[in-house]
Amino acid sequence: MTRPPRIAMLGGTFDPVHNGHLRSAVELRDALGLDRVHMIPAPQPPLRDTPQVSPQQRLELLQMAIGDTPGLEADARELERDGPSYSVDTLRSLRHEYGEQARLVMAIGWDAFLRLDQWRKPEQLFAFAHLVVIARPGHAEAPSTPLMELLGEREVDSVSRLMASPHGQVLRVTLPSAMAISATHIRQSLEQGKSIRFLVPETVERTILREGLYQRWQSAY
Ligand SMILES: Nc1ncnc2c1ncn2[C@@H]1O[C@H](COP(=O)(O)OP(=O)(O)OP(=O)(O)O)[C@@H](O)[C@H]1O
Ligand SMILES: O=C(O)c1ccc[n+]([C@@H]2O[C@H](COP(=O)([O-])O)[C@@H](O)[C@H]2O)c1
């Protein structure tokens, strides 16, 4: 019998993409034995202000960051929708693409997980995908009661248990090279004229500096 595909969505504002995202995607691919990790920029992230840097520019930085990394894909599907970038809509589309037996995972960092109960139709996410929560240095706050209620009995303690079914369960993971890198810190560094070397891939750094992105003198697009 052929093994069902193992697919993950790692959505983000990617404002800009950084090595914390990229290394997490690679280590998640290896830890879960994933066939593909769809890295999906959100044009209008629902719980924050729409970024100044356009969705197309954020996508292009993501594409150059990923390059030819096996199993990682810059996925533009949210750019084709209007309105807030709800993950439930993206997961519906991935489920449709890969079929009902695929093991579909929505991967989010601990900070994003803490607000999951404020997302659109959070319980419906589990009808499409598993949830994998990635530990993130500097984010250790405990989940709220509504969030714990939302999780219910879904938590499992191993990859093999998670992959035994197509969707509906939750796994917390700590990846080997957890990095305390954030896009906020990168934007602040650029605004202050400080170096972002080694926080993002070199091609991304070069493009940001050349285009004047995130720098004080850049006018809003
Ligand atoms: N260093 C990191 N390690 C693990 N997960 C991360 C890391 N940075 C971001 N993530 C996760 O990746 C997803 C997309 O993150 P996002 O694009 O918002 O980046 P960010 O660095 O958190 O941005 P910002 O600082 O602007 O909030 C979220 O689920 C987030 O928790
Ligand atoms: O679906 C929602 O309601 C929802 C609410 C907040 C965030 N998300 C998604 O979570 C991902 C990370 O968001 P953010 O704001 O932490 O960059 C990104 O793909 C967002 O579209 C989704």
TrEMBL record:
User: Keywords in UniProt for this one?
Assistant: ATP-binding, NAD, Nucleotide-binding, Nucleotidyltransferase, Pyridine nucleotide biosynthesis, Transferase
Is DNA-binding found in the keyword set? no
Coiled-coil residues: none
Reaction catalysis annotation: nicotinate beta-D-ribonucleotide + ATP + H(+) = deamido-NAD(+) + diphosphate
Q: Where is the Cytidyltransferase-like domain?
A: 9-188
Q: What biological process terms from GO does the record include?
A: NAD+ biosynthetic process
A Pfam family annotated for this UniProt entry: CTP_transf_like
Superkingdom is: Bacteria
Gene3D superfamilies linked:
HUPs
The EC category is: transferase
Give the EC number(s) under which this enzyme is classified: 2.7.7.18
Q: Name one GO molecular function term.
A: ATP binding
Pathway(s) annotated for this protein in UniProt? Cofactor biosynthesis; NAD(+) biosynthesis; deamido-NAD(+) from nicotinate D-ribonucleotide: step 1/1
Q: State the HAMAP family in the record.
A: NaMN_adenylyltr
Q: Which family does the record assign?
A: Belongs to the NadD family.
As for what it does, the entry says: Catalyzes the reversible adenylation of nicotinate mononucleotide (NaMN) to nicotinic acid adenine dinucleotide (NaAD).
Protein name (database record): Probable nicotinate-nucleotide adenylyltransferase
- Which organism encodes this protein? Vreelandella subterranea
What broad taxonomic lineage does this protein's source fall under?
Bacteria, Pseudomonadati, Pseudomonadota, Gammaproteobacteria, Oceanospirillales
